[in-house]
Fold this protein.
Amino acid sequence: MPHTRLTPAQHEALTAARDAGAKGLQRKLTTTGWASWPAHPSTLRALTRHGLLRRNDTTWHITPTGEHALELAEHPTPPRPPRHAPHFLAPQARAGNGLGYLTQPTRPLPLVADPPDLTDKIRSATAMCDEPEAIGPAIINAQADLARTYDRLRHHATIQQAEQTRRLLKAEHRIADAQRRAKRQHIDVSHEIRIVQKMLDRARRSNRQQAPEDRQDPPAAIARLERIEARLDHRPDLENAA
C-alpha cells in the first residue's frame, strides 16, 4: 500500500526528485569540499524505506510508488462515504424505507447558509409535521374510559360463561372451586363456606332414605353459595340480589 501521508519535507524531496527526472537527486560539493545532501538524511532514509525513492550510491530516483504517492498527496481522494446510510425523518410515518426514515433529505442541504428571511419562515412554520408529539388529557381520559368499558364487558362475559358451567357441577365441586379462588384472591370466605357445608350435611341426613340420584341440594344452600361466588366474581349486584 503506498505511503500517502507525507510530511512537508518528504513532499518537497519527492517533488524535487520528480522534477530532476533521470538525473535524480545528487549530493553536491560545497566550497569547503564537503558534499551536501539534497534533503535531510532522515527524510531520504524514510522515503527509501517506504519504497518511494530508490538510492544508487549518491543519487536518489523517484519510484512509480513515489509518483503515485505524490499524486495522491497533491490530489487527495474524496472522503469515504459513511458505513451506514444517513437517516432523515420522513414526513409520513410509513414513508421512505417503511420505518419512517429517508436516506436523502426532503430538501437538499444547501452549500451556503439560507438567507435570513427563509430561516425565519422555517422557524415560524406551524405545519402538522412541525408540531410536537404530545397527547392531551382529554385523549388520555377518553382512552381510559373506553378501556374500562371493554374490560367491564370482558369481565361480564367471563362471569356469564362461568355461571353456566357452575350450574352443571355438584355443590361439593363448586365449594372446592370457591375455596381455590378465595385463596388466590386472598379473600376469607371460610365462615360462609362452613355454613353452606353444614346446610348440605343437614339436607343429606334428612334425605338419607332417598336414592343418591334423587337427592337434590337445598335451595337455601345453593343461594348462599351463589352469593359467595358473586363476591369472588367482584359482582356486588349479584352478591346482594342472590
Remarks:
- Residues 119 and 168 are 76 Å apart (CA to CA).
- The radius of gyration is 47 Å.
- The chain has a mean pLDDT of 78.
- The first strand starts at residue 25 and ends at 26.
